[in-house]
Amino acid sequence: MKQLAFVLRQVAYDLQSGLLFRPGAILLGCAGLALGLPPAEREFLPALSARLATEPSTAQVVLSTLAGSMMTVVSVVYSILLVALSLASMQFSTRVLALLMRDRVSQNTLGLFVGTFVYCLLTLRTVHTEPAYVPGVALGLGLALALGSLAALVYFIHHIVRGIQANHLVDRIATETEAVIDEVFVAAWDGRGEATVPSLEGDDVLSATSGYVQLVNVEGLRALATGGRTIVLLRPMGSFVPEGAALFRVTSPVSEAEAEALRGAIDVGPVRTMQQDVEYGIRQIVDVALKAISPAVNDPSTAATCIDHLSRLLVRVGPRAAPPIDHGGVYVPAPTHGDLVDLAFEQIRQYARSDMAVALRLMRAFGDIAGAMRSPAGLARVEAQARLVEAAARAHFAPEECDELARRRAVVASRCERAAR
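Below the sequence we write its predicted structure tokens.
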């Protein structure tokens, strides 16, 4: 049952991550409605059907016009979406495309237009001139779907224009990452240090495919850790594993069937996903920031926005314990607070070493994080990053230009010292 739930979670995430499943489901729903409504209203609602009906020729013109216009608008919707995806990939990062592809508004709008087209075509075949018959309720519903499609188009354009703005885009990534943080970092800080995966001797189980670790079924692995056997996952969440590389290390011999079961407990795919990968959410925001401070774009304001949201995520992580590594005979690598601090700020600090605005925003973020962080290792990395930011700024700017930076640096040091007591 747990293995089935693991597989269903993989399938559900994959289906939600494209522009096929939800529009296809809406299309099938509209098709079923068009096939079932005319005979149903003839059987159960003849009076209402007659009241809403019009001349057969008029109904045919209306339905055929609606169907043709829907297909025209579908091409417009797809064009708008493709332009938005292209702009986002060039301006921000290609990694944000997965977020835009999962957008429910885009999926629902496409489904509504395609579904209305199919509904009108299928309803059109039920209109007869001899003997004269028009399914009035079905015709009225077709008009309602058309009006709803127009309203959806207006909202879709508003949503796309709003969604490709840097502030809104980064906020959406951060919001999605917060949900993953709440799933992975579930316990409050307990004062214990961050554990490490033990180095054990044993047999290696090789990966059968190349890709990124997207999802780990810990319960499935625990079911295989019997008889004193220890299983160590060698590749942490989000890391790439080539085909034929070691994926697991097991302290006792493993049969081929058990090796297949071990591989089946890991979802390996061509891209990183946001299912359990906190670091991938941070990575996306960092990529947007790096693109913003590159010489080709030169947009430090967007980089500052990214730093704000990175601090938001690390403040959320700060008072929580790192995810457990030992799962009762199964060891699964997990991100530590220090890892997340370095991932969030290391590259931004290096690329923006000569930008005072970014340095000031980084130092303010370090102060916020230091006030929430409970992990000594995490605090040490915050302190180290702050020290490096200050050193780089003093190497590029006059002493008087670094006064505000020094003030914020003192706040970081004070909060780190207070948290370490």
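The chain has three domains: 2-164, 203-269, 278-323+335-420.
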